[in-house]
Amino acid sequence: MASTPSPHTAVTAHLNSLLSSSSSVNHNKPSNLSFLHASSNPSSIKLLHSVSPSSFSPSISSSTTAICNVLKTVESADISLSRDLHGVVSTSKPTILVSEKLGEAGLDLLRSFGNVDCSYDLSPQDLCAKISLCDALIVRSGTKVTREVFEAAQGRLKVVGRAGVGIDNVDLQAATEFGCLVVNAPTANTIAAAEHGIALLTSMARNVAQSDASMKAGKWLRSKYVGVSLVGKTLAIMGFGKVGSEVARRAKGLGMHVIAHDPYAPADRARAIGVDLVSFEQAISTADFISLHMPLTPATNKVFNDDTFAKMKKGVRLINVARGGVIDEDALVRALDSGIVAQAALDVFTVEPPPKDSKLVQHENVTVTPHLGASTKEAQEGVAIEIAEAVVGALNGELSATAVNAPMVPPEVLSELAPYVVLAEKLGRLAVQLVTGGSGIQSVKVVYKSARDPDSLDTRLLRAMVTKGIIEPISDTIINLVNADFSAKQKGLRISEERIIVDSSPEYPVESIQVQISNVQSRFASALSENGNISIEGKVKYGVPHLTRVGPFSVDVSLEGNLILCKQVDQPGMIGKVGNILGESNVNVSFMSVGRTVKGKQAIMAIGVDEEPDKDTQKKIGEVSAVEEFVFLKL
């Protein structure tokens, strides 16, 4: 049994975790620091609290000093920007470096505001040499904005603009540490991507690419290239966001029956355009055509694999204009060879460009294009304008909803809320994993219990972190304090808050946080409260986030690693039985807790594990006679 950490050690661990989020699963996500906003009076920011770095051990001191450096960087950047806004410092125009081709309309907007340097095809060394003379940098996907670039900027670089959606090529952790805002342009290419999806759908169905190549080779093979009709066929759209919904509109016009899977899509919005929201399993098992419009996240990485293809109708046809990594490409080749997948039309690949000898690209039943989803003249001009407006706004001291990181809040707020920030995100992450079915998440309620006056508790950061935990696991939207409410609204999420005064010490800002999701089905029925909502609650103990309630059941587990929840008959030996199954499969158990409502009736066993148990291990747990249901959750 692990010993209880001291408050000193626990708080230190969480301060360190805020600075080392780059070691987490997804290196492209911003650290928790990116949620924090600038003080209204930058010059009065206090760099530390009442504790000096020298009072810590060497490792603790280095982490605290790092926080100091971040705050100093942001403070100096904010003061400079604030003075620019008020005309106190320099009247010279800012310098904006554009490292990849951008539409003329966007360049014209930038030139009206600052000095624009269009230097294309820069080597990493050349970029580092120029960046110290620039206030803003605009890139597409080809330029890598690494930590070395931010270091070379020597604090002058205020904003990086990514002309497009993905930000895999920008080191967000480094950007945040150096006080540099990062913005993108996520909306301008929506129609272009949807149109390309339809183009691939229709050309695949009628073998346009193959018959074109055949004729140019001097052949006339009418009987070989007999296609299939689209009218009356079922199209499953996986990811019903902006692009997915536009594809649906166009597919309906072609006479197709359209279904969709997206845990965040409001059912009423889908019904308004004649689309039925269904579960993931129902979508892939009933569709004649499947069009992918989901982001690439840890949860969706290779989600279309051998197991997924085995559940599809034989002869299904697949279109992907989203992200290459959502498909296991080797598994797709096997599915094509076996006839499970009749054809595929792909615009994106796991590695781009794919190898010249790629079996997938060379497959006779596959139509491919070189990532052309956003490649229309209109979309390129729209992206140029969108990113130019975002960059100019940032240089003016404004923060738009397309910001993917943000400056700092005062350090005293960070110090007090740091462990609660982690708790809020993990509760959101747990809650969304408990949702199943195709109705979509529409209503989330966050309840804060505190001894403090409700008016003195600023919950914006905590609400943003709950939103982050709910949205990010299955979305490419990066949530921060700036865009949390906007992103929730865009996805049809209504997030409400309630503050309950309790009789506890006002020394701590929050006694507990509860997350409720209403009007959804649950993968773990025991997580449902009396009113039918998914409900989980947590507290911070010794600086460490803990899960303290699941539905009506009390538990007490540290929110670290991964979690297995088992509903069982309350009887002796259950801990040993499940523990032995995990041990035999070499799954390390970090902690275990049992909560019950009535002795001898039912109980919830919460088990912390370091690794995800394989399918056979989970099957064995489910076969234990006293186990009524269980679920594995990733933290």
SSE blueprint:
Elements: H1 7-19, H2 58-85, E1 95-98, H3 104-111, E2 115-118, H4 124-131, E3 136-139, H5 147-153, E4 159-162, H6 172-177, E5 181-184, H7 190-205, H8 208-216, E6 234-238, H9 242-253, E7 257-261, H10 267-272, E8 276-277, H11 280-286, E9 289-292, H12 306-310, E10 316-320, H13 329-338, E11 341-346, H14 359-362, E12 366-368, H15 377-395, H16 411-433, E13 435-436, E14 443-450, H17 460-471, H18 484-490, E15 494-501, E16 512-518, E17 521-522, E18 534-541, E19 544-550, E20 553-558, E21 562-569, H19 574-584, E22 589-596, E23 602-609, H20 615-623, E24 627-634
Parallel strand pairs: 1-2, 1-3, 3-4, 4-5, 6-7, 6-9, 7-8, 9-10, 10-11, 11-12, 14-15
Antiparallel strand pairs: 13-17, 14-16, 16-18, 18-19, 19-20, 21-23, 21-24, 22-23
Write a structural description.
By secondary structure, the protein is an alpha/beta fold. The chain is 35% helix and 20% strand. It contains 20 helices and 24 strands. The strands form five sheets. It has a seven-stranded parallel β-sheet, sandwiched between helices. Strands 15-14-16-18-19-20 form a six-stranded mixed β-sheet. Strands 2-1-3-4-5 form a five-stranded parallel β-sheet. Helix 5 links the parallel strand 3 (136-139) and strand 4. Helix 1 (7-19) crosses helix 16 (411-433). The chain is globular and about 80 Å long. Residues 1-90 have low confidence and may be disordered.
